[in-house]
Specification:
heterodimer, A: about 475 residues, alpha+beta, Heat Shock Protein 90, 5-stranded mixed sheet, 3-stranded antiparallel sheet, B: about 220 residues, Rossmann fold, Arc Repressor Mutant, subunit A, 4-stranded antiparallel sheet, globular
């Protein structure tokens, strides 16, 4: 297919008549022949020039004209050269009569040689011109593709395409169903046809309505318009414009695919978060539920055989597990709220008060837990106290569950305000520390409980951070927002 | 009579707590383990009569515990499984667990399974099996209901006999298929379903509401206990 196109382009160069000569070329040729004649006359008065040298001098002029202006001008130079040679230098002088038969022969040979030389030199000129034009079109296309590769938004792609189309066939314009009205009345029908049928619409033949613009479809409801192509370069330019439209279409499609891939990735991430939360939930909610249901059914079914202390222990278990369930649900709701990204409700708070409140709540929730406070002086800051308390409570819960009693809460200030929950344990395992360091909100794989995920989410939400050290976790909050 | 000793293996203290009270009140002694390694050590040290095993242990997979246990012992094992551990549960049963209870459960359900698993082996004086009103004679390949003989194909008979041999205990699809059709057919669950359907037509009073051959969805079948 591509080979066929290339061969067609080559044929285009070899077929048909060479381009018509320009007036400028003809004038210069006349001057050239005139100048040559004058010089030759002048030379003859100074030194006797052999008669055979004269046609050579004129041949040089013919070759020059051919190389500079192409085939037709070369032929014109040959004919004028022949006339000048005949009129000015052949006996009888200053007449087109030729008295000597050998002169007739010499002049005819000159005409033949000059014609042939002009033909060849002119052809060379024309091929060079065509190659230059093609290189120009290729240059436009190559710039186009590198510019398109850099474009990251559909708007940029279209700007680039219009810019290069302008170089090939001005004026370049973008056509959508909404902008049809801005086109010249004669072009509207073709543009509308192009959009509707999704097919290129070349400009109408010269002299007909719609001769000014051609149109190429890009995507649904989008087309490129360009000025009329004329002259010998028209077929090549049309090819370049078609290639430009193809490349633009491909670039738009690439961006579309990239968009879709991005959206798909976001969806997959949201899905992964949800499934991580679900996995964690199914464990966190099921265990208290199993205890509540089991203990309650035991109380009901084994009523007579249960000793009083067992009965009271089962009731305590039910109460504790119901509270645990309540904490899980609170964390779950908190996590959904954080994921929605609602702005924090900031108020002036003293973090030390919050630490005491969290400790009190934890002592109530975990009977027998030993929680020590070692609080340094802190300025008040504007933050959402409820969230900080929730995060601290989760850290205490974590310390009591996985570390060793007593849990100690300390606070202080160096650049940021910090609250540290330490326990006698070794601290978080390396996998969880790595998870803490990444901005991802979702719980780590295999992580039990949402407590740490919520604490991390809260730290991020309030503009602070949560970091792990050996045996402690530190929540840092900025002093000023 | 000594009270049977039950080993409870679960990493959740609260589960151990309520199971301990409930089993003690129901006439069992209990001991506990929080990890798989501890469980195997307890089996050796205390020689329990039955193990209740949670599949989600922190150190090892519950399945690995069963595999190790089955190399040396046929101690009855009841598996506690969660809804999202369906595959684990079936694999545990195929590895030799005797039955399962899905979490969360009411204590009555667990106690019923316990009783079935602790039931002493059949007396050998009577070779005939019983399933509800059915009397199954493996030697004569005869099944009677209230004295009337039922006509079963050999495969249907084998299926019924398998379920009647361990009344009240679940048999997985795999176990039934391997036993009756051979190991090459352990994946042919639809096949099994067809035969169960035919069998129910012949032995159940109301095949739409079976009382003798019960379905454990996704797991297998259970003969009425």
């Amino acid at each position: 297919m591509v080979d066929q196109t290339r061969r067609d382009a080559l044929d285009q160069d070899l077929r048909g008549l060479p381009p018509a000569p320009g007036l400028w070329g003809l004038a210069v040729t006349l001057a050239l022949i005139g100048g040559t004649s004058g010089l030759a006359k002048l030379a003859m008065t100074l030194v006797p020039l052999p008669e055979a040298a004269l046609p050579m001098v004129f041949l040089v002029a013919v070759l020059l004209a051919s190389v500079a202006f192409g085939f037709w001008t070369g032929l014109f130079a040959a004919v004028t050269g022949f006339a000048a040679l005949n009129y000015l230098f052949t006996e009888p002088l200053y007449s087109f009569h030729i008295s000597r038969p050998q002169d007739v022969f010499a002049l005819l040979v000159f005409l033949l040689v000059a014609g042939l030389a002009g033909l060849l030199a002119g052809r060379l000129h024309d091929r060079a011109e065509a190659a230059r034009a093609r290189a120009e079109a290729l240059g436009v296309l190559s710039h186009l593709s590198s510019d398109l590769a850099l474009a990251t938004k559909p708007d940029e792609v279209l700007t680039v395409a219009l810019h290069h189309l302008e170089a090939l066939a001005a004026p370049a314009l973008l056509v959508t169903p909404q902008t049809l009205g801005n086109l010249p009345a004669t072009a509207v029908a073709a543009a509308e046809r192009c959009l509707r049928r999704n097919q290129p619409q070349p400009a109408a033949a010269a002299g007909w309505p719609g001769e000014d613009y051609g149109f190429l479809p890009l995507t649904e409801g989008l087309a490129l318009g360009h000025g009329r192509l004329s002259g010998r370069e028209a077929p090549r330019r049309a090819q370049a414009i078609a290639a430009l439209a193809d490349q633009t279409r491909a670039a738009l499609q690439r961006l579309d695919f990239a968009d879709k891939a991005h959206a798909e990735r976001l969806r997959a991430e949201a899905f992964a978060t949800r499934s991580a939360v679900l996995t964690s939930l199914s464990h966190d909610l099921r265990t208290p539920l199993a205890t509540i249901l089991g203990a309650a059914s035991a109380l009901k079914e084994l009523d007579a055989s249960l000793p009083p202390e067992a009965r009271s222990d089962l009731l305590t278990a039910i109460e504790e597990e119901a509270e645990r369930l309540n904490r899980h649900v609170a964390n779950l709701l908190q996590l959904s709220r954080l994921e929605l990204g609602a702005a924090p409700r900031r108020d002036w708070v003293d973090l030390n008060d919050i630490a005491e409140a969290a400790a009190t709540r934890a002592r109530r929730a975990f009977a027998g837990a030993q929680i020590d406070l070692d609080l340094g002086p802190l300025p008040m800051i504007r933050t959402e106290g409820g969230l900080v308390e929730q995060a601290l409570f989760n850290l205490i819960d974590n310390g009591l569950t996985h570390g060793a009693s007593p849990v100690r809460i300390s606070s202080g200030q160096n650049g940021t305000l910090w609250l540290r929950v330490s326990d006698g344990g070794p601290g978080l395992p390396p996998a969880l520390r790595a998870w803490l360091a990444i901005p991802d909100m979702r719980p780590a794989p295999g992580q039990r409980g949402l407590g740490l995920a919520v604490a991390k989410g809260i730290a991020k939400h309030l503009g602070g951070s949560l970091t792990a050290e050996d045996g402690s976790l530190t929540l840092r909050l900025p002093e000023a927002i | 009579m000594t009270r049977p000793l039950i080993l409870i293996v679960d990493d959740e203290a609260q589960i151990l707590r309520f199971l301990g009270h409930a089993l003690n009140a129901s006439g069992y002694e209990t001991c506990t383990a929080a990890t798989g390694a501890e469980a195997l050590a307890q089996v050796k040290a205390r020689q329990p009569d039955l193990m209740i095993l949670d599949l989600g242990l922190p150190d090892t997979d519950g399945k690995a515990v069963i595999e190790t246990l089955r190399q040396t012992s046929d101690l009855p094992v009841i598996v506690l499984s969660a809804r999202d551990q369906e595959m684990e549960k079936i694999m545990a049963l195929d590895l030799g667990a005797d039955d399962f209870v899905a979490k969360p459960f009411a204590i009555g359900e667990l106690l019923a399974r316990l009783r079935v698993c602790l039931r002493p082996a059949r007396k050998s004086s009577d070779p005939r099996l019983r399933l509800g009103p059915l009397v199954i004679d493996p030697a004569a390949h005869r099944v009677t209901r209230d004295g009337t003989e039922l006509h079963l194909t050999p495969k249907e008979f084998d299926l019924l006999a398998a379920l009647a041999e361990t009344p009240g205990r679940v048999l997985t699809h795999r176990q039934l298929l391997a036993r009756i059709w051979g190991l090459a057919h352990v994946e042919d669950v639809p096949y099994l379903r067809v035969f169960i359907g035919q069998l129910r037509q012949k032995v159940e009073a109301d095949p739409a509401l079976p009382t003798l051959i019960l379905t454990e969805p996704g797991v297998g079948y259970r003969g009425a206990g």
